[in-house]
Amino acid sequence: QVQAQAPHVVFLAFPTQGHIIPAIQFSNTLASEGFIVTFMCAEQRIAKIRKSQGAELNPSIRLIGLPDNVPLGELRIDEGADSFLLSLRIADNMAPAFEQTVNGLIKDSKESHVPPPLCIISDFFVSWSQDIANKFQIPRYVFYTSPASHLTLVLYLPRLLEQGIVPVAPDARGIVIPGRPPLDGSEMPWDWQQSSPKEVNEFSFRNQLRLHESSGILINTFYELEGEAIDALRTEAINPNKVPIYPLGPILPSWFLKGEPINDEAFPDQTGNECMQWLDAQAPSSVLYVSFGSVAIPTIRQIQEIARGLDASQQAFLWILRLPPSATEATDLPEGFLSRTHSRGLIISTWAPQLLILSHPSTGGFMSHCGWNSILESICSGVPILALPQFAEQFLNSRLVAEQLRVGLKLQRGTDDVAESDEIEIAVRELIQGEEGRAMKKRARALKEEAARVVAEGGSSHTTLNAFVQAATTTHAQT
Ligand code: UDP
């Protein structure tokens, strides 16, 4: 009996958590749509995935670790901007092994039950995979883990470079991108700033300019959240090559989107248990969750101001506190902070189960660096945001949160670009207890319901997913 072969895709992720988490989640979605997924990333990252998530992965996902040629000791996973620079280098170093592996998959397919890959889906930061896709004559789809509103700028990059607006001067004002309100230089992506490392500027430009060559861009967003930006992405001015745009998010586990806090898939580890038990003992919607994602570490001055603000606010908080390498809790937090806040604050210094924390009924607000995953996760839990962006496109995202979606407040910054304790104290109270906070929470809850609808049968993202599956498998039939 002859069985039709399952379609096979190769997935290549950028080696930081904010890119890997949605990539794995989307691979699970593809696998449940009947695809075989060969998922590749840097060796050390794949080892981590195997360890932490191995059991939850759909068996149709095959993990392959690519040697990244960065000595083990040098790679300080999840530790600040230095590790981001390392990630860029690792991303580039994966190229030869990736090409070899794809070549192998094609060759081996003759004697195997796994057909040759019909496309490559790869992160927007590994554009060299376009050359490999071209070489093997298969389409490359881009996996986009930032919002559509960021992509409008990125697709417009060729013009911005031509006009000399990018790299962005520190005092630039009124930057015009079709279909959106003008931006100040400080809101433009960190990787485009003249003040950022040259290596980062060049890395970004090199990767982003090639999005126009791809066969489609899969974005972790949804039409009901970013309709205007998604429409703009389909205009000639921004997307002259008419690259198909697939907004098919939010790419999050279905237990989370449906509001079922804990099941086997999400069963917490030791830190998770500690957080859940502590949250269980707090009043509903009373806790401010504080976290800056997997890469950014605020300056020690900013951390001290946050501590003073939390102290003065009298609110309960769960703080994922990662300090700069030279600092310690005992010596660098304000005197008496830990003892004064002991009864209403929990500080965690390791990786925390963010989805579980956000979906816990005691969580009432999220002080966030505005990484796109964190924003989506907060919205999909109906939790309003206190925005304190750090780098990448987070300044742009914070504007989306505060001004367009109006599900959060932006912390104003004083001298040295630091948000001060008075500002933090007032904003935390407003978010958790105030009228404005309540209104933002209501809007966030409405978006949470919308998010659950769009990924269900007939919803906008579900329809887009079907359109992508159709496009990917049709190409397959022709080759
Ligand atoms: N995250 C987590 N526990 C942590 C820190 C981060 O689960 O202690 C997850 C978070 O839920 C999100 C991702 O890591 O899915 C971070 O992505 P985001 O885009 O928010 O920020 P980035 O780390 O890329 O700056």
What would your notes on this structure say?
The protein is of the alpha/beta class and 479 residues long. It has helices at 17-32, 43-53, 80-93, 95-108, 129-135, 148-155, 157-162, 198-208, 223-233, 254-257, 270-280, 300-313, 329-332, 337-341, 354-359, 372-379, 394-404, 421-433, 435-454, 460-478; strands at 8-12, 36-42, 61-66, 119-123, 140-144, 216-219, 245-247, 287-291, 316-320, 345-348, 363-368, 385-387, 408-410. The protein has a seven-stranded parallel beta sheet with strand order 3-2-1-4-5-6-7, with helices on both faces. Strands 10-9-8-11-12-13 form a six-stranded parallel beta sheet, sandwiched between helices. Strand 1 (8-12), helix 1 (17-32) and strand 2 (36-42) form a beta-alpha-beta unit. Helix 6 runs parallel beside helix 9. The model is unreliable at 75-79 (pLDDT under 50). It binds uridine-5'-diphosphate. Residues 16-18, 21, 291, 293-296, 320, 351-352, 354, 371-374, 377 line the site of uridine-5'-diphosphate.
